[in-house]
Amino acid sequence: MGTKRDEIPTSTLPRRQLGRFLRDARSAAGLTIVRASALTDLSPAGLQRIESGRVQKVRKQDVRALCELYHIGARDTRRAVTLAEQARERSWYSDFGNLFDETFGLYLDLESAAQQMICYNEHIPGLLQTDDYAEAMIGACHDRVPEEELEQRLELRLKRQSLLTRKKLPLTLDVLLHESALYRLVGNAELMAAQLRHLDKFAALPNVSLRVHPYRAGLTWGILHGPFVILSFRPDPKGGSPEPSIVYREGAPSSDIYIERPDEVDRYTELSAAIRAMALTESETRDLLRQVAKEYDHEH
Predict the structure, then answer these.
(1) Which residue ranges does the record assign to the HTH cro/C1-type domain (predicted)?
(2) Most buried of 4, 90, 226, 292 (most Cβ within 10 A)?
(3) Which architecture, in CATH terms, is 102-299?
(4) Which residues of the chain does CATH 1.10.260.40 include?
(5) pLDDT tens digits, the chain, 300 residues: what are they?
(6) DSSP-assigned letters across all residues of the chain
(7) How far is Cα 196 from Cα 296, in angstroms, rounded to an integer?
(8) Could you give the residue range(s) of every CATH 3.30.870 domain in the chain?
Protein backbone atom coordinates (compact mmCIF):
# COMPACT_ATOMS: atom_id res chain seq x y z
CA MET A 1 0.00 0.00 0.00
CA GLY A 2 2.98 2.34 -0.07
CA THR A 3 2.84 3.93 3.39
CA LYS A 4 2.59 1.79 6.50
CA ARG A 5 -0.47 2.63 8.55
CA ASP A 6 1.56 3.11 11.75
CA GLU A 7 3.49 5.88 10.00
CA ILE A 8 2.28 9.41 9.35
CA PRO A 9 1.84 9.93 5.60
CA THR A 10 3.75 12.81 4.03
CA SER A 11 2.18 14.09 0.85
CA THR A 12 -0.62 16.61 1.38
CA LEU A 13 1.08 18.48 4.23
CA PRO A 14 4.32 19.08 2.30
CA ARG A 15 2.25 20.29 -0.67
CA ARG A 16 0.41 22.76 1.53
CA GLN A 17 3.63 23.86 3.26
CA LEU A 18 5.40 24.36 -0.06
CA GLY A 19 2.44 26.26 -1.49
CA ARG A 20 2.21 28.53 1.53
CA PHE A 21 5.97 29.17 1.45
CA LEU A 22 5.93 30.08 -2.25
CA ARG A 23 2.81 32.22 -1.90
CA ASP A 24 4.34 34.21 0.98
CA ALA A 25 7.63 34.59 -0.91
CA ARG A 26 5.86 35.86 -4.04
CA SER A 27 3.87 38.34 -1.97
CA ALA A 28 7.05 39.55 -0.23
CA ALA A 29 8.63 40.03 -3.66
CA GLY A 30 5.69 42.21 -4.70
CA LEU A 31 4.67 40.00 -7.63
CA THR A 32 1.21 38.95 -8.76
CA ILE A 33 0.50 35.40 -9.88
CA VAL A 34 0.19 36.61 -13.47
CA ARG A 35 3.55 38.44 -13.36
CA ALA A 36 5.38 35.59 -11.60
CA SER A 37 4.07 32.98 -14.02
CA ALA A 38 5.07 35.16 -16.98
CA LEU A 39 8.65 35.21 -15.69
CA THR A 40 8.77 31.41 -15.29
CA ASP A 41 7.70 28.40 -17.31
CA LEU A 42 4.30 28.22 -15.58
CA SER A 43 0.76 29.27 -16.38
CA PRO A 44 -1.13 31.47 -13.89
CA ALA A 45 -3.51 28.58 -13.21
CA GLY A 46 -0.60 26.19 -12.70
CA LEU A 47 1.13 28.50 -10.23
CA GLN A 48 -2.12 29.05 -8.36
CA ARG A 49 -2.56 25.26 -8.02
CA ILE A 50 0.98 24.93 -6.67
CA GLU A 51 0.36 27.70 -4.13
CA SER A 52 -2.90 26.09 -2.99
CA GLY A 53 -1.21 22.69 -2.49
CA ARG A 54 -3.20 20.99 -5.25
CA VAL A 55 -0.28 19.71 -7.34
CA GLN A 56 1.27 16.46 -6.13
CA LYS A 57 4.18 16.27 -8.57
CA VAL A 58 5.72 19.74 -8.45
CA ARG A 59 8.81 19.87 -10.64
CA LYS A 60 11.99 20.67 -8.73
CA GLN A 61 13.18 22.95 -11.52
CA ASP A 62 9.99 24.99 -11.14
CA VAL A 63 10.59 25.33 -7.41
CA ARG A 64 14.17 26.43 -7.98
CA ALA A 65 13.09 28.92 -10.67
CA LEU A 66 10.46 30.44 -8.37
CA CYS A 67 12.91 30.67 -5.47
CA GLU A 68 15.43 32.41 -7.71
CA LEU A 69 12.75 34.82 -8.94
CA TYR A 70 11.72 35.60 -5.35
CA HIS A 71 15.38 36.02 -4.24
CA ILE A 72 15.17 33.14 -1.76
CA GLY A 73 18.44 32.09 -0.13
CA ALA A 74 20.16 28.75 -0.77
CA ARG A 75 19.08 27.19 2.55
CA ASP A 76 15.38 27.96 2.12
CA THR A 77 15.56 26.92 -1.53
CA ARG A 78 16.88 23.49 -0.48
CA ARG A 79 14.04 23.21 2.05
CA ALA A 80 11.48 24.08 -0.64
CA VAL A 81 12.92 21.46 -3.00
CA THR A 82 12.80 18.88 -0.19
CA LEU A 83 9.11 19.66 0.33
CA ALA A 84 8.52 19.13 -3.39
CA GLU A 85 10.23 15.73 -3.17
CA GLN A 86 8.14 14.72 -0.15
CA ALA A 87 4.96 15.81 -1.91
CA ARG A 88 5.59 13.24 -4.64
CA GLU A 89 5.34 10.32 -2.22
CA ARG A 90 2.51 7.92 -2.91
CA SER A 91 -0.42 8.31 -0.50
CA TRP A 92 -1.63 5.26 1.41
CA TYR A 93 -5.07 5.45 -0.25
CA SER A 94 -3.74 5.42 -3.83
CA ASP A 95 -5.05 1.89 -4.41
CA PHE A 96 -8.56 3.23 -3.77
CA GLY A 97 -8.29 6.20 -6.13
CA ASN A 98 -11.08 4.90 -8.36
CA LEU A 99 -13.61 5.34 -5.54
CA PHE A 100 -13.48 9.11 -5.05
CA ASP A 101 -12.47 12.39 -6.64
CA GLU A 102 -9.40 14.54 -5.96
CA THR A 103 -11.25 16.66 -3.41
CA PHE A 104 -12.00 13.76 -1.07
CA GLY A 105 -8.51 12.37 -1.68
CA LEU A 106 -7.21 15.62 -0.19
CA TYR A 107 -9.40 15.06 2.87
CA LEU A 108 -8.07 11.50 3.35
CA ASP A 109 -4.50 12.81 3.32
CA LEU A 110 -5.34 15.55 5.82
CA GLU A 111 -7.21 13.10 8.05
CA SER A 112 -4.23 10.72 8.06
CA ALA A 113 -1.77 13.46 8.97
CA ALA A 114 -3.93 15.17 11.61
CA GLN A 115 -2.98 15.19 15.26
CA GLN A 116 -6.50 16.02 16.40
CA MET A 117 -9.96 16.07 14.85
CA ILE A 118 -13.03 17.76 16.26
CA CYS A 119 -16.16 16.76 14.39
CA TYR A 120 -19.84 17.49 14.70
CA ASN A 121 -22.04 14.89 13.02
CA GLU A 122 -25.71 14.07 12.55
CA HIS A 123 -24.95 10.46 11.62
CA ILE A 124 -22.27 8.07 12.87
CA PRO A 125 -18.91 9.36 11.55
CA GLY A 126 -16.96 7.06 9.24
CA LEU A 127 -14.12 6.55 11.72
CA LEU A 128 -16.58 4.96 14.17
CA GLN A 129 -18.87 2.96 11.88
CA THR A 130 -19.29 -0.82 11.98
CA ASP A 131 -18.93 -2.71 8.71
CA ASP A 132 -22.69 -3.30 8.57
CA TYR A 133 -23.53 0.36 9.21
CA ALA A 134 -20.97 1.46 6.61
CA GLU A 135 -22.32 -1.05 4.08
CA ALA A 136 -25.87 0.20 4.60
CA MET A 137 -24.75 3.84 4.25
CA ILE A 138 -22.69 3.12 1.12
CA GLY A 139 -25.54 1.13 -0.41
CA ALA A 140 -28.00 3.96 0.23
CA CYS A 141 -25.67 6.56 -1.31
CA HIS A 142 -24.43 4.49 -4.24
CA ASP A 143 -27.35 2.52 -5.63
CA ARG A 144 -26.45 -0.90 -7.02
CA VAL A 145 -22.79 -0.74 -6.04
CA PRO A 146 -20.89 -3.70 -7.58
CA GLU A 147 -19.76 -6.22 -4.97
CA GLU A 148 -16.08 -5.60 -5.68
CA GLU A 149 -16.45 -1.84 -5.24
CA LEU A 150 -18.44 -2.30 -2.04
CA GLU A 151 -15.64 -4.45 -0.62
CA GLN A 152 -13.10 -1.78 -1.59
CA ARG A 153 -15.10 0.95 0.11
CA LEU A 154 -15.40 -1.12 3.28
CA GLU A 155 -11.66 -1.86 3.21
CA LEU A 156 -10.94 1.85 2.87
CA ARG A 157 -13.23 2.61 5.83
CA LEU A 158 -11.43 0.01 7.95
CA LYS A 159 -8.00 1.42 7.08
CA ARG A 160 -9.17 4.88 8.05
CA GLN A 161 -10.33 3.58 11.43
CA SER A 162 -6.83 2.27 12.16
CA LEU A 163 -5.83 5.92 12.72
CA LEU A 164 -7.47 5.63 16.14
CA THR A 165 -5.71 2.42 17.18
CA ARG A 166 -2.26 2.71 15.60
CA LYS A 167 0.57 2.36 18.11
CA LYS A 168 2.51 5.43 17.00
CA LEU A 169 0.77 8.77 17.64
CA PRO A 170 -2.87 7.70 17.32
CA LEU A 171 -5.33 10.34 16.21
CA THR A 172 -7.06 12.29 18.98
CA LEU A 173 -10.76 12.34 18.10
CA ASP A 174 -13.33 14.62 19.71
CA VAL A 175 -16.82 13.68 18.45
CA LEU A 176 -19.89 15.81 19.05
CA LEU A 177 -22.78 13.65 17.88
CA HIS A 178 -26.32 14.96 17.57
CA GLU A 179 -28.85 12.77 19.38
CA SER A 180 -30.76 12.23 16.12
CA ALA A 181 -27.91 9.98 14.91
CA LEU A 182 -28.88 7.44 17.57
CA TYR A 183 -32.45 7.20 16.29
CA ARG A 184 -31.98 7.73 12.54
CA LEU A 185 -32.45 4.15 11.37
CA VAL A 186 -29.71 2.83 9.10
CA GLY A 187 -30.32 -0.76 8.04
CA ASN A 188 -32.40 -2.28 10.82
CA ALA A 189 -32.77 -2.33 14.60
CA GLU A 190 -30.26 -5.14 15.08
CA LEU A 191 -27.66 -3.24 13.06
CA MET A 192 -28.28 -0.05 15.06
CA ALA A 193 -27.93 -1.85 18.39
CA ALA A 194 -24.57 -3.26 17.30
CA GLN A 195 -23.45 0.17 16.05
CA LEU A 196 -24.27 1.91 19.31
CA ARG A 197 -22.39 -0.74 21.31
CA HIS A 198 -19.48 -0.25 18.92
CA LEU A 199 -19.56 3.48 19.74
CA ASP A 200 -19.57 2.67 23.44
CA LYS A 201 -16.44 0.53 22.98
CA PHE A 202 -14.55 3.23 21.07
CA ALA A 203 -15.62 5.86 23.60
CA ALA A 204 -13.51 4.00 26.16
CA LEU A 205 -10.29 4.68 24.22
CA PRO A 206 -8.09 7.32 25.90
CA ASN A 207 -7.71 9.25 22.64
CA VAL A 208 -11.45 9.36 21.85
CA SER A 209 -14.02 11.72 23.37
CA LEU A 210 -17.65 11.10 22.43
CA ARG A 211 -20.45 13.37 23.61
CA VAL A 212 -24.05 13.48 22.47
CA HIS A 213 -25.63 16.84 21.72
CA PRO A 214 -29.24 16.30 22.87
CA TYR A 215 -32.42 17.53 21.22
CA ARG A 216 -33.22 19.59 24.30
CA ALA A 217 -30.06 21.68 23.75
CA GLY A 218 -31.87 23.38 20.87
CA LEU A 219 -30.06 25.28 18.11
CA THR A 220 -26.51 26.31 18.96
CA TRP A 221 -26.15 30.02 18.16
CA GLY A 222 -29.70 29.83 16.80
CA ILE A 223 -28.56 28.36 13.47
CA LEU A 224 -28.63 25.05 11.60
CA HIS A 225 -24.88 24.87 11.10
CA GLY A 226 -24.66 21.30 9.81
CA PRO A 227 -21.77 18.81 10.13
CA PHE A 228 -18.14 19.93 10.09
CA VAL A 229 -14.63 18.67 10.90
CA ILE A 230 -11.74 20.71 12.32
CA LEU A 231 -8.33 19.16 11.62
CA SER A 232 -5.24 20.23 13.56
CA PHE A 233 -1.69 19.10 12.85
CA ARG A 234 1.51 18.34 14.73
CA PRO A 235 4.36 20.84 14.92
CA ASP A 236 6.99 20.43 12.22
CA PRO A 237 9.59 18.01 13.68
CA LYS A 238 12.31 19.94 11.83
CA GLY A 239 11.45 23.17 13.58
CA GLY A 240 9.27 24.79 10.95
CA SER A 241 5.95 26.41 11.74
CA PRO A 242 3.06 23.96 12.25
CA GLU A 243 0.58 23.57 9.43
CA PRO A 244 -2.51 25.73 10.15
CA SER A 245 -5.74 24.03 11.15
CA ILE A 246 -8.39 23.55 8.47
CA VAL A 247 -12.16 23.02 8.46
CA TYR A 248 -13.74 20.43 6.19
CA ARG A 249 -17.42 20.40 5.28
CA GLU A 250 -18.68 17.47 3.26
CA GLY A 251 -20.60 18.81 0.30
CA ALA A 252 -22.57 15.75 -0.86
CA PRO A 253 -24.40 15.84 -3.18
CA SER A 254 -22.42 18.92 -4.32
CA SER A 255 -18.77 19.91 -3.79
CA ASP A 256 -16.82 19.53 -0.55
CA ILE A 257 -15.67 22.73 1.13
CA TYR A 258 -12.31 23.48 2.77
CA ILE A 259 -12.03 26.54 5.01
CA GLU A 260 -8.51 27.81 5.76
CA ARG A 261 -8.85 31.48 6.75
CA PRO A 262 -7.70 31.65 10.40
CA ASP A 263 -10.61 33.84 11.50
CA GLU A 264 -13.13 31.43 9.98
CA VAL A 265 -11.38 28.39 11.47
CA ASP A 266 -11.46 30.14 14.86
CA ARG A 267 -15.20 30.67 14.42
CA TYR A 268 -15.76 26.94 13.96
CA THR A 269 -13.59 26.23 17.00
CA GLU A 270 -15.81 28.58 19.01
CA LEU A 271 -18.90 26.86 17.58
CA SER A 272 -17.61 23.43 18.61
CA ALA A 273 -16.97 24.75 22.13
CA ALA A 274 -20.54 26.09 22.30
CA ILE A 275 -21.93 22.72 21.17
CA ARG A 276 -19.75 20.89 23.70
CA ALA A 277 -20.95 23.17 26.51
CA MET A 278 -24.54 21.98 25.92
CA ALA A 279 -23.68 18.31 25.28
CA LEU A 280 -24.01 15.39 27.64
CA THR A 281 -20.93 14.37 29.58
CA GLU A 282 -18.92 11.41 28.30
CA SER A 283 -20.39 9.24 31.06
CA GLU A 284 -23.96 10.35 30.31
CA THR A 285 -23.32 9.72 26.62
CA ARG A 286 -22.21 6.13 27.21
CA ASP A 287 -25.24 5.50 29.43
CA LEU A 288 -27.51 6.81 26.67
CA LEU A 289 -25.81 4.64 24.04
CA ARG A 290 -26.44 1.52 26.12
CA GLN A 291 -30.03 2.55 26.82
CA VAL A 292 -30.89 3.14 23.16
CA ALA A 293 -29.10 -0.08 22.15
CA LYS A 294 -31.40 -1.99 24.54
CA GLU A 295 -34.41 -0.25 23.00
CA TYR A 296 -33.31 -1.53 19.59
CA ASP A 297 -32.86 -5.02 21.07
CA HIS A 298 -36.57 -5.06 21.95
CA GLU A 299 -37.50 -4.28 18.34
CA HIS A 300 -36.11 -7.49 16.86
Answers:
(1) 22-78
(2) 292
(3) 2-Layer Sandwich (3.30)
(4) 12-87
(5) 333 433 333 456 778 888 888 998 999 999 999 999 999 989 999 999 898 887 878 899 999 999 999 999 998 898 888 888 877 765 544 554 555 555 666 777 788 888 999 999 999 999 999 989 988 887 776 566 677 777 777 788 788 888 999 888 899 999 999 999 999 999 999 999 999 999 999 999 999 999 999 999 999 999 889 999 999 988 765 655 668 899 999 866 566 788 888 899 999 999 999 999 999 999 999 999 999 999 999 987
(6) --S-TTS---SHHHHHHHHHHHHHHHHHTT--HHHHHHTTT--HHHHHHHHTT--SS--HHHHHHHHHHTT--HHHHHHHHHHHHHHTSPPTTGGGGGGS-HHHHHHHHHHHHEEEEEEEESS--GGG--HHHHHHHHHHHSTT--HHHHHHHHHHHHHHHGGGT-SSSPPEEEEEEETHHHHS-SS-HHHHHHHHHHHHHHTTSTTEEEEEE-GGG--GGGS----EEEEEEPPPTTSPPPPPPEEEE--TTS--EEE--HHHHHHHHHHHHHHHHTSPPHHHHHHHHHHHHHHHHTT-
(7) 10
(8) 102-299
